[in-house]
Specification:
Length: 174
């Protein structure tokens, strides 16, 4: 993890700017362990803000995700996305196909776990966080079944837990 134990912070915001825009892609044990490790570094009175995809019906695609001009090769490129369900309904594989104007193509894949509100609340409580707010987007929009995102603001409560507890937390939540 990026922080050593002698550092503590008032606010951690986890939001990535990649195509998936997810803070956590991890399997259940790693997700719970990450929350426990992060908890060690959040000061009393501090907060953690992060976003996750909200599980629900997905367009399996392919669909056009993005168009951009690739300056490295000097031509236009389209990114087409396909979602493929895995054996666990919470696990998806995203496939991005890059299609350049010249006809060149490349593929990239990423496995992504999705968690229900109930599962996230359980992992947060076990890691020593209380939920301050849950929104459906970063503008503070209402969270609900149709929301594409889960945007969480949480604060530490009680003593930090042992980060190794994450694997036990995941087993209990399953």
């Amino acid at each position: 993890f990026l922080f050593s134990k002698e550092h503590s912070v008032l606010l951690i915001v986890l939001q990535s700017r990649c195509l998936s825009n997810d803070a956590f892609h991890a399997a259940p044990a790693e997700f719970a362990a990450a929350l426990a490790r992060i908890r060690v570094h959040v000061k009393e009175g501090g907060a953690l803000v992060f976003d996750l995809p909200n599980p629900g019906p997905r367009n399996p695609g392919p669909f056009l995700r993005e168009r951009f001009f690739d300056e490295r090769v000097g031509e236009a490129c389209e990114v087409w996305e396909t979602l493929e369900a895995e054996s666990d309904p919470r696990l998806w594989e995203r496939v991005w196909e890059y299609r350049w104007a010249s006809g060149r193509r490349a593929r990239e894949t990423m496995r992504r776990w999705e968690y229900s509100e109930r599962e996230v609340r359980a992992a947060l409580a076990a890691a020593g966080f209380r939920v301050d707010a849950l929104a459906g987007d970063f503008t503070g929009g209402a969270f609900g079944g149709a929301s594409l995102r889960q945007v969480w603001k949480v604060s530490p409560v009680g003593a930090a837990v042992n980060p190794e507890i994450g694997h036990a937390i995941a087993r209990e939540a399953a």
